[in-house]
Recover the amino acids of this structure.
């Protein structure tokens, strides 16, 4: 469900709750991918809400650029502060291994959320949605929109983005099913999460493939840029767009039909669960092995399961669908 | 006869770069069009030109700065800040007239440029350092004022988005704005005292001082102008992409500098022509537009782009050396 | 009182403890050409810069037309009708001639503020024609030779309609012909009522244009004389404070075996088919009009430029010239024409400037030995008689002549066999000139071969064993010391067209 | 020869005021201030282990600062270093992962690739003097990272041999290995700049390239060496960064060039060339490093840190000129 919380301005700094449990003296840290991104903002907000709820102290950090180098520095600083747990939305699955292992050997509980680190560098991962599911629903949506026939393309972020590549991999798996045999994926373009590059990539797609009937863009910058190009060119209803987008960025385009519907999860909830997983690890309620269970505040009970990469994870649920009916409400939240 | 060769020499001196660039642009265009005939379609060309408009506007300001032997690395951050402030204002008052929005952006830009001017002129900080510092500071400020949020199309007024989308006589507003600014800058640089003083200061600051030009005043104004252009470009950017983000135009300063240098603006100061800068912007614009079109692997794009810039500047050197050699050989020795 | 347009009383200027001007007084009458002379470092340029507002004086008053004035900056000076041509050409290399002339008073339409290019180009062309120069006003300043740039500077000063015009060594870079033109211009200016301060080290200048002369020595005012009241010898005594009997030292060296043979050296656009030989102990002069390509020939021999054709034999071995480093290793040294830019690192100390070309002499496997460096630099600096507080003084604080001496010291350090000197006495006072001539002769006696570029005929005739005249990049004639007369040399240097034009 | 008329023997007078007003002393003061500040704001700072181990966060970048001092001393600039780091690291990863070369060989290849990148920059800059070094390195910046992308595509390389981790994470006694290596490298570069012919010639070129040419200095050779050295040190930085991250990818070390330039300039090296000292740049490395670390320990948002560092750079370089109204440039007398 919706937390109803408005994102609060103070992204950073510590805030302490008034709880009295054993966790109250503990410090829980979360590291987002980078600053200045509303998605990360919402995610860390959820984390802070959870920590406040159970009465701990939270630290929110993020490097100014989405790089592993910046995250390593931050983790080192957190180790020096002897925090109880570190949750991280990683910029590189493998690059954080040495530093996270150092953290774990210093007795700090380490978990990843949103974008996983490799199993060796974490105790558990909080997964927003099953990547297989994400791949599937997007191809299914595209199929429905373009009537299962014709050409479509994918507009991704950078060519090095791990989660993008995983989703694209599962999209291709899904496409092998017979119902999509008349659909053809003509190109994977990379807009590097830059509005200008995403725009010219979209324009190039339209130029190079005049018969193009759809675009899947599993990235918030890409989908917004593509939507802008399609609506500027008056292609609503001719070229369909779907993917993963932020409701507040996409509300206009969903209403105008350029993007009939799209998906995302609730980043606030990811942060929120991450907060509770941190607590559970620190309290010793769970150790991160399969079958462990814990309660995540208002979201209820969760179980640790096996993750696709061989580690363990806590799965939030299926991706959430945004369409004309619910976009108004969500656009106000994030 | 003597006069003829002399004039030809001047033509080569003044226009060789432009001719070379034009040939290079034509070569690249034709090569691209062979791979993808859609390149020369009206739609693509007009997309490309409007995508290049903002770059070409910034290049004017950068050229003026570089003529004074300076450089401005902060422009992308100034763009982000002015774009963000304007977008936030628009978000708060949807009814705000687009004209006013442009003015707000301009004001933010002028302010940003003014602060840099103070450091460069009053405190004699090398431009590359002052602007490197404020590149960080303005970027940080952008994140702070936006509280790390974005302003999306949903929060913008239609009028605001029409700034970049609208057309006059079938020509995109951005292109019109760019053309107006080029005309204005052309007059300013070539037909006003102040314009020539900018060249003088860049060519030899010492003698400018000795001959009574207020070099501080010139330098101060130059960075303010650059700020104004960046402020304006920030608003246009946000309007065009309907999204104001903290990382707007990150790293864009390098494209602008590259456009200037391709256009023959010497980093040592003193020389630079608007026609060259326009062609330089156009070449970069074409590369940005063409690489996705010719379907090279995305992994190859940036290597190709870097290599083409290098080839362009190196071939210009060969071209220039050849011209020089020919002029020498024509001398009656 | 007097009919003076400009009076200076008790002018003092101190640079970080050093007095460059010590209570100097000076009168400039209306419509006179007033020569200002003195040794290098006497304070002439500083004096000028104080008058034009480049420097602020530390004491003294400036009285203009009977009124005491304050000149705070060059703009003020311009307003008071004072224009200056500085010793070191101050131009805008990237701008056109027209702009260089008019930059500080660009003509604009009074209504729109639009620059009137056509009008200015025409005016510039007029001015230049007036100065009997053929330069196209639309050429870039950087494309002009030093002499041509000098002419532009003069045009610039005239264009402001100043009534006081100051020229700081305007003839230093000019040949005789060009100097003649300048004299004519100076006369014209005087006749039109302007007053002129004319700084020069050349006595011909003094005789030809000046009405009166003021001498400065060691930052102090020595005296003012009418041009006919003082003989050259007396002038020298006043300037130097001692007597110098001869202009040129007696020749002691004898020519020995050949050291350099250049055959058919060609560089497209600069010179072609140049053949020269230099023997040990011999001084060979390259002369000709400015712009004839003498500098380029020397630079090619030194390895700054690469020749297109031709052969160079050094000590009877054919050599390939690669770069200055290899040339110096072979034993060829070069004293460049522009000491401020090519010769010295201006903000470095004398010591570092002297040693920079031969650091390996003061180092042990690449590690510097400051003690060795210092003692050698001190030895050389005093050998050529550099006037400075210490070898730690920056080159920037030296006067032109002393700067030149530092470069000579730099050459003496390197272990050379052939020394190429490009205008070695340009802008140097009599005393220092004589010292440099002595050094040259001494070097020749030690067996060095010397190739000297010079535009000053007396110097060429007085010093050289052989004279090679360059015209338009080609050797036009070669004279031995005995055969050479000023007329013959000049004729050989004159452009062919000019000769033809005269006949028409 | 003329006789000795005036003996030039006056020694440079020693002035305490001048000595202590040198930029480097101000930097030392700033460094002490930063440490006091850090200790005051965070209880975690004054822990010798923390202080020492914090150096691993910024020292890999600092390896590039050393040769960058030379580049800027020449009055030039190299903005391709970040991309060179990425390319050499990526090539190392590929050789180790794909071609299964021994780790030591991969390390050598990494260094060689770095040096080659630098050599390429140097050759173009020397051969085509007409092109400003900033432009040459601007295009190779795009190109090198592009080549890294071509090589490794969207993958990341790594899984290096266990000992490789020691570079960034290991200790010699209680001192981080990287700190020891950096100290050695800093001393070598400092001596090279201040105590050798080579260094003196670099100063000469930076002060007046034309006069240096006429003095027989082999400018091309020196530039080539310096750019190659810069590339090589980028390779060294790539080793330590890869060790820190345990993996390589094409987008690593972004922004390293501007960081390095900022530290060099903060260290008092004049961006126009010819003036400054190695020690200044080294102190600047630690000032910025410790300041960032301290602000991180109080969990200051990286956005505010961005503003602080930006202002620090602009203001500190402005500082010596604020009092002087004439606007004369600060002059640090070089060794
Ligand atoms: N900017 C300066 N700083 C310190 N000392 C200076 C400066 N300018 C000139 N001086 C000193 O002042 C004295 C006078 O120099 P000035 O240039 O006026 O001599 P000059 O008579 O013009 O010599 P020359 O004939 O060589 O041009 C010299 O001793 C010189 O070293
Ligand atoms: N016909 C020509 N047209 C244009 N430029 C010329 C011509 N001939 C020579 N020049 C240029 O004019 C410049 C003259 O330079 P400079 O005065 O140094 O000549 P120089 O004879 O070597 O001088 P000096 O003997 O006085 O040192 C040269 O750089 C040359 O490139
Ligand atoms: Mg003088
Ligand atoms: Mg010459």
């Amino acid at each position: 469900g919706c937390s109803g919380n408005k994102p609060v301005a103070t992204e950073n700094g510590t805030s302490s709750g008034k709880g009295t449990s054993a966790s109250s003296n503990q410090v829980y840290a979360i590291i987002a991918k980078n600053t200045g991104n509303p998605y990360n903002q919402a995610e860390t907000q959820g984390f802070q809400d959870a920590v406040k709820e159970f009465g701990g102290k939270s630290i929110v950090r993020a490097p100014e650029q989405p790089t592993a180098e910046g995250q390593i520095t931050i983790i080192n600083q957190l180790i020096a502060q002897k925090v109880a747990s570190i949750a991280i939305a990683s910029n590189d699955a493998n690059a954080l291994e040495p530093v996270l292992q150092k953290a774990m050997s210093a007795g700090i509980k380490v978990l990843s959320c949103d974008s996983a680190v490799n199993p060796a560098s974490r105790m558990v991962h909080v997964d927003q949605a099953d990547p297989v599911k994400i791949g599937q629903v997007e191809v299914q949506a595209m199929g429905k929109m373009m009537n299962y026939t014709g050409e479509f393309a994918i507009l991704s972020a950078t060519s090095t983005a791990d989660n993008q590549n995983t989703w694209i991999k599962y999209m291709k798996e899904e496409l092998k099913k017979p119902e999509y045999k008349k659909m053809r994926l003509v190109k994977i373009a990379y807009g590097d999460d830059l509005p200008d590059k995403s725009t010219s990539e979209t324009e190039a797609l339209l130029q190079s493939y005049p018969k193009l009937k759809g675009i899947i863009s599993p990235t918030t910058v890409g989908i917004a840029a593509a939507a802008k190009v399609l609506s500027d060119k008056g292609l609503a209803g001719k070229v369909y767009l779907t993917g993963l987008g932020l409701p507040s960025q996409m509300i206009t385009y969903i209403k105008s039909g350029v993007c009939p519907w799209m998906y995302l999860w609730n980043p606030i909830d990811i942060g929120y669960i991450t907060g509770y997983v941190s607590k559970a690890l620190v309290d010793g309620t769970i150790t991160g092995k399969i079958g462990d269970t814990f309660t995540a505040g208002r979201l209820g009970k969760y179980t640790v399961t096996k993750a696709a990469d061989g580690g363990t994870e806590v799965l939030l649920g299926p991706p959430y669908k945004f369409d004309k009916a619910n976009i108004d409400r969500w656009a106000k939240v994030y | 006869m003597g006069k003829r060769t002399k004039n030809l020499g001047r033509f080569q001196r003044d226009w060789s770069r432009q001719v070379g660039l034009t040939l290079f642009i034509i070569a690249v265009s034709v090569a691209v069009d062979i791979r993808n005939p859609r390149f020369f379609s009206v739609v693509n060309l007009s997309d490309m030109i409007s995508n290049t408009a903002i770059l070409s506007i910034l290049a004017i300001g950068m050229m003026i700065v570089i003529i004074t032997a300076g450089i401005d690395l902060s422009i992308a951050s100034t763009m982000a800040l002015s774009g963000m402030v304007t977008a936030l204002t628009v978000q708060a008052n949807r009814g705000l007239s687009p004209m006013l929005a442009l003015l707000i952006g301009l004001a933010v830009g002028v302010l940003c440029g003014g602060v840099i001017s103070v450091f460069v002129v009053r405190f004699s900080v090398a431009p590359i350092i002052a602007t490197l510092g404020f590149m960080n500071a303005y970027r940080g400020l952008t994140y702070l004022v936006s509280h790390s949020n974005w302003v999306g199309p949903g929060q913008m007024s239609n009028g605001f988005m029409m700034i970049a989308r609208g057309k006059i006589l079938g020509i995109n507003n951005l292109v019109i704005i760019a053309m107006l600014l080029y005309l204005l800058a052309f007059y300013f640089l070539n037909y006003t005292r102040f314009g020539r003083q900018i060249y003088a200061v860049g060519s030899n600051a010492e003698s400018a001082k000795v001959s009574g030009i207020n070099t501080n005043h010139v330098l101060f104004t130059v960075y303010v102008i650059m700020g104004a252009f960046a402020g304006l470009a920030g608003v246009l950017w946000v309007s065009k992409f309907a999204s104001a983000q903290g990382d707007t135009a990150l790293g864009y300063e390098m494209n602008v500098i590259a456009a200037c240098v391709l256009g023959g603006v010497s980093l040592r100061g003193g020389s630079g022509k608007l026609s060259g800068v326009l062609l330089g912007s156009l070449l970069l614009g074409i590369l940005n537009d063409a690489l996705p079109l010719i379907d090279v692997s995305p992994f190859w794009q940036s290597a190709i782009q870097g290599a083409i810039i290098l080839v362009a500047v190196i071939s210009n050197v060969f071209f220039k050396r050849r011209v020089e050699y020919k002029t020498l050989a024509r001398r009656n020795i | 009182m007097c009919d003076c347009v400009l009076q200076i009383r008790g002018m003092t200027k101190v640079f970080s403890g050093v007095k460059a001007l010590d209570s100097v007084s000076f009168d400039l009458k209306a419509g006179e050409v007033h020569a200002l002379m003195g040794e290098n470092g006497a304070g002439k340029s500083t004096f000028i810069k104080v008058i034009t507002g480049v420097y602020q004086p530390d004491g003294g008053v400036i009285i203009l037309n009977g009124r005491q004035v304050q000149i705070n900056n060059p703009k003020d000076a311009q307003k008071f009708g004072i224009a200056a041509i500085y010793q070191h050409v101050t131009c805008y290399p990237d701008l056109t001639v027209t702009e260089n002339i008019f930059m500080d008073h660009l003509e604009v339409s009074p209504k729109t503020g639009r620059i009137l290019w056509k009008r200015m180009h025409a005016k510039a062309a007029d001015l230049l024609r007036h100065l009997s120069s053929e330069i196209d006003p639309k050429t870039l300043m950087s494309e002009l030779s030093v002499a041509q740039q000098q002419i532009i500077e003069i045009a610039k000063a005239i264009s402001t309609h100043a009534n006081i015009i100051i020229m700081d060594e305007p003839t230093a870079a000019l040949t005789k012909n060009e100097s003649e033109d300048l004299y004519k211009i100076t006369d014209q200016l005087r006749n039109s009522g302007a007053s002129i301060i004319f700084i020069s080290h050349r006595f011909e200048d003094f005789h030809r244009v000046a009405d009166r002369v003021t001498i400065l020595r060691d930052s102090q005012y020595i005296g003012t004389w009418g041009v006919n009241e003082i003989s050259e010898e007396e002038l020298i005594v006043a300037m130097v404070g001692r007597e110098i009997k001869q202009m040129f030292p007696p020749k002691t060296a004898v020519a020995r075996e050949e050291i350099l043979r250049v055959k058919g050296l060609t560089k497209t656009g600069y010179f072609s088919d140049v053949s020269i030989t230099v023997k040990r102990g011999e001084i060979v002069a390259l002369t000709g009009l400015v712009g004839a390509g003498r500098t380029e020939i020397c630079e090619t021999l030194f390895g700054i430029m690469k020749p297109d054709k031709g052969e160079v034999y050094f000590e009877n071995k054919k050599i390939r010239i690669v770069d200055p480093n290899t040339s110096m290793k072979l034993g060829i040294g070069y004293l460049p024409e522009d000491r401020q830019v090519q010769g010295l690192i201006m903000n470095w100390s004398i010591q570092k400037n002297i040693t920079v070309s031969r650091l390996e002499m003061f180092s042990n496997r690449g590690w510097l030995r400051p003690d060795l460096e210092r003692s050698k630099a001190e030895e050389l600096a005093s050998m050529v008689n550099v006037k400075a507080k210490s070898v730690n003084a920056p080159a920037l604080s030296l006067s032109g002549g002393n700067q030149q001496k530092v470069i000579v010291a730099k050459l003496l350090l390197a272990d050379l066999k052939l020394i190429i000197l490009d205008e070695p006495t340009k802008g140097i006072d009599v005393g220092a000139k004589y010292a440099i001539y002595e050094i040259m002769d001494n070097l020749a006696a030690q067996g060095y071969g010397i190739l000297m570029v010079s535009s000053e005929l007396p110097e060429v005739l007085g010093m050289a064993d052989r004279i090679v005249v360059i015209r338009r990049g080609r050797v036009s004639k070669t004279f031995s010391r005995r055969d050479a007369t000023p007329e013959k040399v000049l004729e050989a240097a004159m452009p062919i067209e000019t000769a033809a034009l005269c006949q028409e | 020869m003329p006789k000795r008329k005036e003996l030039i023997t006056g020694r440079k007078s020693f002035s305490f005021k001048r000595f202590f007003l040198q930029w480097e002393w101000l930097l030392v003061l700033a460094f002490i201030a930063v440490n006091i500040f850090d200790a005051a704001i965070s209880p975690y700072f004054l822990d010798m282990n923390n202080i020492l181990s914090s150096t691993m966060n910024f020292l890999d970048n600092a390896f590039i600062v050393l040769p960058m001092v030379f580049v800027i001393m020449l009055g030039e600039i190299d903005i391709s270093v970040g991309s060179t780091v990425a390319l050499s690291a990526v090539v190392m990863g590929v050789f180790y992962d794909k071609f299964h070369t021994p780790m030591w060989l991969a390390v050598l290849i990494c260094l060689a690739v770095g040096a080659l990148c630098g050599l390429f920059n140097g050759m173009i800059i020397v051969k085509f003097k007409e092109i400003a070094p900033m432009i040459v390195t601007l295009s190779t910046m795009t190109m090198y990272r592009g080549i890294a992308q071509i090589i490794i595509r969207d993958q990341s390389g790594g899984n290096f041999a266990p000992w490789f981790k020691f570079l960034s994470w290991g200790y010699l006694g209680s001192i981080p290995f990287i700190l020891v290596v950096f100290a050695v490298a800093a001393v070598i570069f400092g001596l090279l700049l201040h105590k050798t012919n080579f260094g003196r010639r670099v100063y000469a070129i930076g002060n007046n390239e034309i006069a240096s040419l006429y003095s027989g200095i082999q400018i091309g050779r020196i530039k080539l060496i310096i750019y190659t050295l810069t590339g090589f040190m980028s390779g060294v930085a790539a080793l330590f960064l890869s060790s820190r991250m345990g993996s390589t990818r094409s987008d690593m070390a972004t922004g390293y060039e501007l960081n390095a330039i900022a530290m060099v300039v903060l260290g008092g090296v004049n961006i126009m060339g010819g003036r400054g000292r190695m020690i200044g740049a080294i102190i600047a490395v630690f000032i910025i490093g410790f300041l960032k670390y301290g602000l991180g320990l109080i969990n200051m948002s990286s956005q505010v840190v961005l503003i602080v560092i930006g202002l620090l750079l602009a203001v500190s370089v402005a500082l010596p000129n604020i009092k002087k109204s004439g606007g004369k440039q600060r002059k640090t007398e070089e060794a």
